[in-house]
Amino acid sequence: MQAERSGDIVVLRKQKQDVFDSPSFEPIKFINSMYPDEASLTDLDKFMDVLRKQIRTVDKDIFHAVRAQGGAHARARQELESAQTQIMELYDRVKEIQHKAEESETVVQDICKDIRKLDFAKRHLTNAITALRRLAMLTAAVTDLEACSGRRDSYKKSANLLEAVHQLMEYFQQYEDVPKVKTLGKRLTVIELQLTESVLDDFKVLMGTADVKVSPDNLDRLAAGCLVVDALGPKVRDQLLDWMCDREMNIYQLFSNSGGPETAKLDRFEKRFQWQG
After folding, report:
1. Please, are residues 211 and 171 in contact by the beta-carbon 8 Å criterion?
2. How far apart are the C-alpha atoms of 166 and 226, rounded to whole Å?
3. Distances in whole angstroms, Cα of residue 262 to Cα of each of 27, 151, 266, 267
4. Are 42 and 1 contacting, i.e. CB atoms less than 8 angstroms apart?
5. What pTM, to 2 d.p., does this model score?
6. Of 127, 165, 185, 271, which has the fewest CB atoms closer than 10 Å, so is most exposed?
7. Domain ranges of the chain
8. How far is residue 11's CA from residue 22's CA, in Å, rounded to a whole number?
């Protein structure tokens, strides 16, 4: 029986966790199963010693577990405080970065404003330089045109200068209130009137009559005069065409009227053209 008690104690040591941790554990039933009669009580002291050792072992384990848990709690609290401190530092850094970003955005906006101002200034300066260059070109062209307008053998050059001056004057329409541009416009008007008068006079003088043909030199001069007429515009061209039509019609009227009242009748219409034969 003693050997069996010793074996039971060993079994108890191996299976104590399963026995005591079982939800259906009943102490009285367990004791009755271990010591069913009086003879089995001989190993009770040894069994008690084993239980006391196990209790001390469990107490030590509990003590170490509680102590370790207490240390873990302190470490966890310390780590939590450290994490909170790091979060606050990170928050401060984020706020600082945000503040610097706002300052940078303000600086960028100021720089963009300055760039826009410089861009506007550059654009105005470029326009001013372009206007001054074209004004110098216009002044030189008008001066050259004044020199050529008094010479009737320079019609080709005058025509080219007129076209250039007209193109430049189109650009300066937006500056027509500027005194310098006004002065150049008045000078150009005088030159155009002078050229118109000269060209029309040349056509009247050099065209000759029906009996006299125009010489080759005069034809070249009149051809150059046509270039000037085109450069002067449709108004002068219409004046020249009106004069040419009147000139031709005057010749026709001269010959048709020479036939007297007889040719004025409708039934003698063919006699109006006898002058052509």
Report:
1. no
2. 17
3. 167, 50, 9, 9
4. yes
5. 0.52
6. 127
7. 2-81, 234-277
8. 16
